[in-house]
Amino acid sequence: KTSPKSVIIDRMANGGIPLLDSHQQVGINNELGKVKRLWFSSGALMGKLAFNATPEGKKAKGMVKRGEITGISAGYRVESWEISDGDGNVIHPDKVRWDDTGLTFTATRWELLECSLVGIPADPRSSVRSLQAEPGPQFIADGRARMWARQRIVERMGAGRS
Length: 162
Hints:
The protein is mostly beta strands. The protein has 2 helices and 9 strands, in the order E-E-E-E-H-E-E-E-E-E-H. It has helices at 55-65, 148-157, and strands at residues 7-8, 17-21, 31-41, 44-51, 71-84, 90-91, 104-118, 127-131, 134-141. The radius of gyration is 17 Å and the shape is elongated. The two termini are 20 Å apart.
């Protein structure tokens, strides 16, 4: 389960975490709003969304309100990993054979850079929804989800970020 100690949310201090259209960081039209509040509940990262008053923000807000878009995905940077083998044994990074396909990489410390509304979230348990206690659009992201598959894709693509 995700704990508050594992997630770096320093960007919240600067007005919120950007809410983007499908992780598109180029151009101001891709910013749909902000994540204005974050909290943890039962090991999941939760957030309160606020949409921009731009045409793109209003369109996204309407699509979320009507249930036309429910997927949310986090853009993040991993600071530290826990590596385990197929039996669940934790392996020291210096002892890892990088060609071993049975390894699982679990992010143990990561920075939330942005959240994106997406058609298909990487984690199918992540979604936008309305919670009774907090009126308006919310999201839930199960931070426990293993990020190793996505990291391997990023490594294969030669990208320096995830």
